[in-house]
DNA sequence: TTCGTAAAATTGGTCACACCAATATTGCGG
DNA sequence: CCGCAATATTGGTGTGACCAATTTTACGAA
């Protein structure tokens, strides 16, 4: 465990103490001077370590008070929270529907053409080096980009990363996608048509429908397979999302 | 443009130079001693700034060689994108409205009570150690938490961070908030009432109205003051957002 | 005793200076 | 022109000091 820079080593030692429960979440860790003595390094090294940990969101440094351990329970290494498939899909349903509605009036013909291309790739009509999954992502991201809003692009991009990086989701999503290819195709086409007509309401509805059916497919998959964790969360989300749907 | 800690300010100045193209991707930035002189701070401050930037994956520090700018395409993890006030507010209007609609049917009485408390803090009726701005954030975040959806909580929390961390936004927002205290109060009350009635549509509408008026206030502010950069972006967003509004 | 406030101690923030180690550059000899 | 050593540059670490924000302590008034 030899690091190139001293503060790396110090930061790791601090993290070990945190993860081992010596410094529980919310607690205040010893002062920089104490830690320096304890680790046998200078205060500068401890300080740099704490700055790095703060930049990673593991601790919070308060002037004149001390450094406090933040709750890292629901944070993955990349900074994105680890979430379940239902809440992710629910959030995507809401946010991507608004994204599509916002993009509809201002989407360019070029973007429309690209979306059409991605649909053809997903259906297998066009052969490229792009996988169906990549085309799916490109399809959704292209719509987000058509809003010309960097925040929306950022948010939807992050949600896709959550989907990609969560191992639990991968398993569930894959089993779902294998058996709903034709549905997905129809839904994407519906979204494209709404955008082609520059109809915000239709785009919103089509996008919502897309994710709504995805949630239903997830429910089926969670009952077939033995995803105990998923099942548990499903019972929570099912009633909630039904409520959301009846609003439209 | 005043940050709490010096190294934070230095890090932002370095980021500006990177994003403005002065230090392109892959290039080596000036030595710590040079930057310290240029920014008028000590070498320690520059060093801490670079450590923070390294922890965020923006630069790579090589011993004896220098600090090199990394490809920012992989950012967006811990680092938030720099955004303008209009696109941020537009995104918040869309996302927070859906958040409120989703929370409305399932919000607890405890949450309602808390929201009421935050409103009173903002109006000054209740005196605590919490500032009006902090109460404002707590109000919006409490609604997001009431969705029980970690993705939504994460997204809305991130948008608030963007608002806090963007220096440009601070100036504009501040000038707006100074003169719309009463409006904000009424709007928050309207949101609360909709949630109290467990009315999703009303909650969505109230939240949209809240941000719609904020955008209008931003437009006024951008015309009064000499925020050239803001003005330019305003002309883009004005027409777009008008279109969004007519959907409801 | 209880409470509020002022003094003292603690803690993070910043700085200047010094020295070491890794890396780049220079310059000399071949 | 090339290779290598001397030199300069740059990041890494340490020490000590002082400031500012915060917390704790202590003391005096009610």
Model description:
The structure is a homodimer of 248-residue chains. By secondary structure, chain A is mostly helical. The first copy, chain A, has two domains: 6-69, Orthogonal Bundle (Arc Repressor Mutant, subunit A), CATH 1.10.10.10; 85-245, Four Helix Bundle (Hemerythrin (Met), subunit A) (Up-down Bundle), CATH 1.20.120.530. Chain A has eleven helices and three strands. Chain A has helices at 6-19, 32-39, 43-55, 85-103, 109-123, 132-145, 150-165, 167-177, 181-196, 200-224, 228-245, and strands at residues 28-29, 59-62, 66-69. A three-stranded antiparallel β-sheet of chain A has the order 1-3-2, covered by helices on one side. In chain A, strand 2 (59-62) and strand 3 form a beta hairpin. In chain A, helix 8 crosses helix 10 (200-224). Chain A is elongated. The model of chain A is unreliable at 242-248 (pLDDT under 50). At the A-B interface, helix 3, helix 4, helix 7 and helix 11 of A face helix 3, helix 4, helix 7 and helix 11 of B. The first copy, chain A, binds a DNA duplex (30 and 30 nucleotides) through residues 5-7, 31-33, 41-45, 47-48, 50, 61-67.
């Amino acid at each position: 465990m030899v690091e190139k820079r001293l503060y790396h080593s110090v930061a790791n030692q601090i993290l070990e103490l945190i993860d081992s429960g010596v410094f529980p979440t919310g607690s205040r860790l010893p002062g920089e001077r104490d830690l320096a003595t304890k680790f046998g390094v200078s205060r500068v090294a401890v300080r740099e370590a704490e700055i790095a940990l703060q930049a990673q969101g593991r601790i919070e440094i308060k002037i004149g008070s001390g450094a406090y351990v933040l709750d890292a329970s629901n944070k993955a290494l990349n900074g994105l929270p680890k979430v379940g498939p239902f809440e992710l899909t629910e959030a995507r349903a809401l946010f991507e529907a608004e994204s599509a509605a916002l993009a509809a009036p201002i989407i360019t013909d070029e973007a429309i053409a690209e979306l059409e291309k991605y649909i053809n790739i997903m259906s297998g009509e066009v052969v490229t080096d792009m996988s169906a999954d990549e085309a799916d992502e490109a399809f959704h991201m292209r719509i987000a980009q058509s809003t010309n809003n960097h925040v929306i692009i950022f948010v939807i991009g992050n949600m896709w990363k959550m989907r990609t990086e969560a191992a639990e989701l991968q398993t569930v999503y894959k089993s779902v996608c294998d058996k709903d290819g034709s549905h997905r195709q129809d839904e994407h086409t519906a979204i494209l048509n709404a955008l082609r007509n520059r109809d915000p309401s239709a785009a919103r509805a089509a996008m919502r429908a897309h994710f709504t059916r995805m949630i239903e497919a997830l429910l089926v998959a969670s009952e077939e397979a033995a995803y105990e964790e998923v099942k548990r969360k499903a019972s929570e989300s099912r009633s909630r999302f039904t409520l959301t749907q009846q609003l439209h």
